[in-house]
Amino acid sequence: MVSSPHEAMHRIFQQYPDLFSRVSEVLGVDIPPPTSATALPTDLTEARPVERRVDTLLRIETEHDGPFVLAIEAQAKKDPRKTASWPYYVSYLHNRYGLPVLLLVVCQDRATAEWAARPIAIGIRQWQTLALNPLVAGPHNMPVITDVAEARKDLALATLAAITHADNPDVGAILKTLSAALRDTPEAIADPIVELTAQGLGNRPAAQQWRNLVAVDLSFYKSFMSEEIRDEGRAQGRAQGRTQGRAESLRLVLEARGITITDEIREKIDNCNDPQLLHVWLNRAATAASVEEVFAGE
Q: What is the structure's pLDDT at 219?
């Protein structure tokens, strides 16, 4: 099953195709900025029962060096099968489109990134028939952005950097910076960044930190995740209202039936957060002759 971090690490390039030019600059590779980018079919399946799919595939146009095909793979862990599939992707794409092909691998942990960056050689000891050198972006070379002004300069790069540093001990500061950078950003720009960041963090503890940051100012965040948070808040509010209502009803019934409510019992009722249990007590209070009968067995 494809994970949310896996999707976010490559989908961000679908959302912001020109992000690659900044990533390549960060990685120390001199690739001209694109003049346009076109999403290509990601299905690399041949006319035989062997299915091969690259995560994201883009045709990048440049002003001086011409077009090239950019294949982007999100890699969560080491996978020995990639030493066979990645060269296949590159050779197939080169044959299909007749253009130079570049493979970018995005990772979230250093060990996987270092593994992915190893050259893949196909041939014999005396002669390499094919050599593949993936370009790798990960926590080992992506910037740690904790300056709001820097994040605002390039929100897409700041988002990818936050995703690749999901396991960084300082991820809280990174996410706080990104959240602050989005505060005055139009919704159309902020919404996909909020969602991609949430996807990229997956089920890590940092995901809850991001939700908390998003929830601070829901008047700004109008994304799907903020709607989810609002729904959760409404549900909690309704549950809390039911609990308070039943606690008040229980006290009124006890008082109406002349059953003494001690401070201890009042505290017991007020501290109960289980609406089902309060409902049981309320039903008992309608016929109980003493307070002991109401709370019997509790």
A: 45
